[in-house]
Specification:
Elements lengths: L41 H7 L19 E3 H11 L3 E3 H4 L3 E3 L9 E4 L1 E2 L1 H9 L3 E4 L1 H25 L1
Parallel strand pairs: 1-3, 2-4, 3-5, 4-6
Amino acid sequence: MGKERTRKMRGKKTFGYGSKKKHRGAGSRGGRGMAGSFGHKRFRVMKEKPNHYGRRGFKKRRKKVVGAINLKSLNLLAEKLGKKNLNLAELGYQKVLGTGKVTNPLEIEAEIFSQKAKLKIEEAGGKAIQIGKEKGRIEKNQKQAESGNNVETEEKE
């Protein structure tokens, strides 16, 4: 007995695809690679690669945005409003910066003061009053420092 004849569509021009044009290029595959994974190939991708969609990895840390105002602008604002007591949290600011001069004695309430700003306000005869989150953190640090000092004095005695 001889070899069996192969039946691999020998002599067939189109190899079972009908017209020659039906088996050409990326168009017949619905795009190259993962093209169409959010469209016409979505369910196929979900079935074959269940972890393909979604977020993985790290998120970029975002900087905290703080509304800051300079003493120069603060001085003009106080004159414009005609007030000597200013609560910056109500005006939408968190931090006072030290650029400029304070001409009138002002009482300013804010979460954060730069060292220069605090110094300039007090030199002009005003008060820099800390409120909010920063005040709580500073008081906590001061209490820890005081409790640490008390421990040292007790040990010496």
